Amino acid sequence: MSVRRTLATGAPVLATVLGGALLRGLVLAAPASAAPAPDLAASVTTFSAGRLGASTGAVLGLAGLLVAWRATARPAGRLGAATGPLGAVLALAAGVAAVVLGGLVAATADAGLGTGNGRGGAYVALLVGLAATALGGRALARSRRRAG
Predict the structure, then answer these.
(1) Where are the alpha helices (DSSP H) in the chain?
(2) Which of 11, 12, 73, 146 is the 20 to 30 A CA-CA neighbour of 55?
(3) pTM for this entry
């Protein structure tokens, strides 16, 4: 059998097989392409674990920042540096907890900002927790200076 004869008889068969496969691919692919694409970002109303951790860290950091501010601004108050290291220690603990929570959420978030994984809130918790830790350390140094 010559090459010309093989190609002449094989071409229509090959065209039929490829055409059928292409037609089947288009018919079977139509329902899949008609389905909505899955959302990569979380909905605005969903509260994921990342958002919860980041929000908790940010609130803890803010509370620590407020306690540290009260401890340094009003030394004679209940949380102040003149009455002991209570306010400073509370601020340091809240600040460190906020930094740890923010770092954990930022490290485990698998997508970028705005996707609902809590990465933006984790960065806020890191910053506020760092500020609370710094101001709490300053209040602790003041309370030790007054006590000693």
Answers:
(1) 3-34, 49-73, 86-108, 119-147
(2) 73
(3) 0.65
